[in-house]
Amino acid sequence: MATRIDKEACREVYNLVRDDSSGICWACFKYDGSTIVPGGHGSDYEEFKSQCTEDGRLFGFVRMMTGDAMSKRSKFTFITWIGENVSGLQRAKISTDKALVKEVVPNFAKEFMISDPRELEEDYLRNELKKAGGANYDAQAE
Questions:
Q1: Residue 80, CB half-sphere, CA atoms under 13 Å: how many?
Q2: What is the pLDDT of residues 57-82, one digit of tens each?
Q3: Can you give the pTM of this predicted structure?
């Protein structure tokens, strides 16, 4: 059966993360049978990490504050999580399903495909976003 996505519900959660005044910094999109639906959202990144289980697969949209001494700004990342215990068939299918989610989540600075929980560390992701972000005046102080 072909995967579908609940575009309206997913877009609503995506917009919450993008809204500077909402306080929401992450959203995840999970499978409900053959349909991708919002799987949760929140203001604590640790909550997002807890969604990424060894048996699960999901898509995440996360807001992080980046910047340097000269300016601070929000950057967004798109994360595809594939747990270590996910079957080969489900691993292969997630690549094509990602295109459906990207129709709803089109704007982000950097994309990650992660299956190692250590790569979910906030500092690692923030550093990668910083590298993708252009000017870095903190580098001059190092």
A1: 20
A2: 999 999 998 876 677 788 999 999 99
A3: 0.89
